[in-house]
Every structure is written in structure tokens, then in C-alpha cells.
Amino acid sequence: MPVTITFPDGSARQYEAGTTGAEIAASIGPRLAKAAVAARFDGAAIDLHAPITQDGAVEVITAASEDGRHILRHSAAHVMAQAVLDLYPGAKFAIGPPITDGFYYDFEVAAPFTPDDLVRIEKRMAEIIAEDQPFERDELSVAEALEVFADQPFKTEIIESVDEDEGAGGSEVSVYRNFAFVDLCRGPHVPSTKRLKAVKLMRSAGAYWRGDENRPQLQRIYGTAWESKSELDAYLERLEEAEKRDHRKLGQDLELYSFPQELGSGLAVWHPKGGLLRTIIEDYSRRTHLEHDYQIVSTPHLAKADLWQTSGHLDFYAEGMYPGMVLDESTEYRMKPMNCPFHILIYGNRGRSYRELPLRLFELGTVYRYERSGVIHGLMRARGFTQDDSHIFCEENDIAGELQNLLDFTLMVLRDFGFTEFEADLSTKDPEKYIGSDELWDKAEEALRLALEAADLPYNLAEGEGAFYGPKIDVHIRDAIGRRWQLSTLQVDFAQPENFDLLYATDHNTRERPVMIHRALMGSIERFVGILIEHYAGALPGWLAPVQATIVPVADRHIEYAEQVATRLESQSLRVEVDGSDETVGEKIRRAITQKHPAILVVGDSDVAAGTAGLRLRGEDEKRGVSVDDVVGKLVEVCRAPR
Questions:
Q1: pLDDT digits (tens, 9 = 90+) for 448-500
Q2: Catalytic-role residue among 189, 245, 313, 518
Q3: Rounded distance, CA 486 to CA 461, Å?
Q4: Is 518 a catalytic residue?
Q5: Which residues contact 340 (CB under 8 A, 6 or more apart)?
Q6: I need a labelling partner for 469 at 20 to 30 A (CA). Which of 119, 126, 289, 311 fits?
Q7: Can 391 be counted among the known catalytic residues?
Q8: Hey, what domains does the chain have and what are their CATH numbers?
């Protein structure tokens, strides 16, 4: 019997039962057949050579798509594991998933991998790819799989984690083979190794099994794979550019912050220029929130563990919290990982009326999360950081309006800092795990969707990815070199008002429960600074630069005049430094350029006589003999804050 295949454009065509995705792609055209690496049947990814035996929707996955690249990288990870096992007898292999822009695989070997080892492994991978080995799927019973992987303890542990009841009933696990190599895997994979056109190994590092520092330490090899050599080359160029922009190095070079070993992992200290940068951002945040009807609050850094029990954090987030401290004889205290319970206590401190709603509380609140050492990354993933945190308490009927205002506010703030490309994820209800009524969830999800559409913000629907207590929007930006960063979160919460029994008096003198909206625009000040540094490659816009102008006197006799010019600029709230060091003018100018100051003023004899200065703005040639009045006007313009 024929099967009816429906395509993404809505058209349909009949094929013989058992037709494969590869045959369907070939029937559409030779270019599509050449580009295809897998297919999707009724939403599920399948191998190109998997037979299709029933009616359904089919989409061909091409190598140049994100899904296609994911499959390329997954297949490359298998080839890397095969190469390592070929070259290092006795090696044990663990897991090897595709990740953003690449893949990795973890191994237990006698000694850490060296750069020479990576060259050797990559050479063996090239040989495997040239052999055009087919990826073949198989299903094994748990007992069969345990036999196949009897000498591989990490694979055995994975197999044994299969539900025992299902295992007793003959549960199967899927594997993929290419020649003698076999690996546990759900797939799909490219049809054969020769479809891997551009693969490169990047580096190796230590990694604990299952991310648990109490388990064996393995050796992880990172690689990347692309659909063509040109795409691989472009990626390597982006990596080189990203390395130049690394906020950890630039932060040190620009004297903004550092990460002393004495503090432990994931904690930064802010130097004077970095502290000033934080202050500029935080002052902007406070001022902007006050202008938009938020009320500023402040809360402590720790609380009794009972508070976190009521909020649910000790049940759902205990591993991310610092261990408790037993004080006051027998009372346990915890450092706060979130600000929300404190804002709830402020709301619940007294009775509330509908006339007070929406109540918008805002805090630059420092929180502490015990991130594993392996995931800490400078300011981007830290253990102590300050959130621009807000919690809004409103009536159910206010949800739509609040979310619309919030999204508009979010995009306004991000645009003020120079970001122009935005995307969003809309995470909806998990049908298995949620609290609150279906009606309330539907209302909140619809309000989030309408807010996104009103803002003309492209978004992806993340079905079932909402928290158990409510749906959310995650706003992503793209930086100057095209990287995607998740920044802002808007989350509707039905759980905490119930956990803390929050109420308000309605206009009919009844008691109703408010809805709570969690919102952080920058995410954290630390991470936001890190993203800004990398986005601008350290050359911050004038209004954010800790030093907006450096004045360079040509000789010591010009220092007094330089100080007078500095005083004039400072009277206009410009941030200025005079470089009165003994170095040459060229060296002083080079230092100011290296420090990425927006403006450099050079003053000499003719300037003292005429009341002028040489003015060099970032990215422009120097202009000599500019009157100080004109210098002031130009710098005020260059360094004007967005609002």
C-alpha cells in the first residue's frame, strides 16, 4: 500500500511503503539529495535510510541547517571515539554529545592528551572518514548490550540505568555501528562517514564523569564539524575574533576586574575603573526603573533556611545553594540564591488592596549560587553576582498589560546599551508538571505571545519548557560578531503567591491571590558587563567608558594647562585623566589607545597660547588647534548617555 507524505509547504505526494528519506529527497531534486543528512518524520528526526511505512509529515534535514549541523557533529563525535579506541588500546569511552558549534567526547586513558595526540587522532579520523564507513542502527536487549560493552564501565553504567522493570520485560537500547566500532546512541546520524566534510579537533581538558567531582576524572576532547571547509574556516576566524574579545583578558588589560585565587573560583573583585563602570550601569538601572514606576527595595544576603523551604528552593534548588550555617544555637541560615522570597516578604508585610496593584519592586540584589567549578567562566558564569531583579504583583486581568510593558521596557534598555538584534523563546506549560488552573496558564501564555507579537520580536516556541509554576519569555541578543546571548527573562509565577499565601482586597471587598511576575533585564550586572566588553571589544561607548578623555601634556611645563582643561571638562561631568608621566608623548598616546579611551587631547606650547588642544576621537585622525569650547561640546555629544 502506498503512503501519503506531507511536506512543510502543505503539499502531499504518495510513495511506496518503505520509501526512505533519502529516496524522498532524491525525488524532489538532486541538490536536495546531495545536501540531505537526515529527515524528520512527524517531528521526530530519523536516519535518511530509515524506511517510512505509514502516512505522515516529512521534512528533509540538510547539512547547512542547525539541525543538520547537530547531526554532523554527533556523527563526528562517534568517529573521534572510534579513532581514540583504535589508537589507545584499553581506553574507556563515556559520552560524546554535540554542543553549540561543536562536539566533545570523554575518555579514561592512561595519561592526559597532548597537542600531538590530537594531531594523531585527527589524522586517524580523516582515514575513517575516507573509508566511507556506513552508520548502521541496531536494537539490542539490555542483556545483549551489557555483553557488547562488558569492557566499557561507563557504557555499562548507562545501560544499567535503563528502568529495571522495562529491562526485565525485554527493553531494548539502540546502538550505531560503523565497521567494528559500536556505540550507544539514539541517533540519527549521517548515512556514512564520508559525509563529514570539515572536522577539526580543538583542545582537550579534564572533566569529571557525570560532572561529579567525586567520580573519576576523564579526558575530554573538543572538536567542531561543519558542512564545508569554507564554513569551518569562517568559524575559526570567529573564534580568533572571540579570543581577542575575551572579557577575562580585556578586563585585566583595562584594569576593570580580576579573579584572585585567594577568593576561590567564580568570584571577582572590581578595580576602581571597573567599580566606576558598574556604578554607571547601576545608576542607569535605578534611574530608569524609577522613571517607570518601580519602587526600589533592599534585602539581606542570607535568611533562615525555613524561608527557602517555604519558597521551594530547598526542594528544587538545594544543589545550587551554598551549604547552611547553623547559628543562634540551632537555627540554619542560607545565603540567598534568589531575591524573590525577600520581595514576597515585603509584599506580605501588611494587607494589600487592589488599588496598590500592580506593585513593582526592584532591587540590585547580590545572590550566591554554588556553581560547579567546571562550568565557571569569568563573569559569564560566577558564584556571586548582582541581579537587576524585579518582581511585579498584579491582578490576573493585569497580566497582559504588564507583560507588554515589560517587554517594551526590556527592549528599550537593551537598545540603550547598543544591542539591535533580538530573538526570544516562549516556554509553555509542561502537561505533566504544572500548578495552577489550565485557564490561568492559557491566559498567561497568550499574554506572553501577544506581547512578543506586539513588539515584533521573532520567537521560538519551546513547548513544555516552562517552569512548573508558570510560562516565560527569554530574550536573546546577538553581539557584534553574531554570537547569541540569553539576557532577559520574564516569567509568570502562580506558585509563590500560593506558597506564601499572598492576598489582596478586591474592589468587592473579597480576598484574591495576586499573580507574580519575575523579571531580570540584564540577568546579572557581572554577566552583562562581560557581554558588553566582548560586544565592544573593550572599546565601550563614550557614556559607559570609565575614562572618557585622556589629556597628554607634551612636556612638564604644559601640565598646569592640561589640568585647567581637565577642570573645564569635569565641570560638564566628563570623566578625565591627565597623563603627567615622564614617558614620551607617543608612549602616552599609545597607552590611552590601548586603554580604549574615547578621546585623547594633546596640549603643547601653541595650545597654551591659543586656548586650544589637539583632539583625537576613537577611530578618527587627530585635529590640531581645536578650541577648548569646541572640545567640550564635541565630548559632551560623544559621551551623552541615552537618557
A1: 999 899 888 999 998 888 877 789 999 999 999 989 999 999 998 888 998 99
A2: 518
A3: 15
A4: yes
A5: 311, 389, 391, 493, 496, 516, 518
A6: 289
A7: yes
A8: 2-62 (3.10.20.30), 67-243 (3.30.980.10), 257-301+336-535 (3.30.930.10), 549-638 (3.40.50.800)
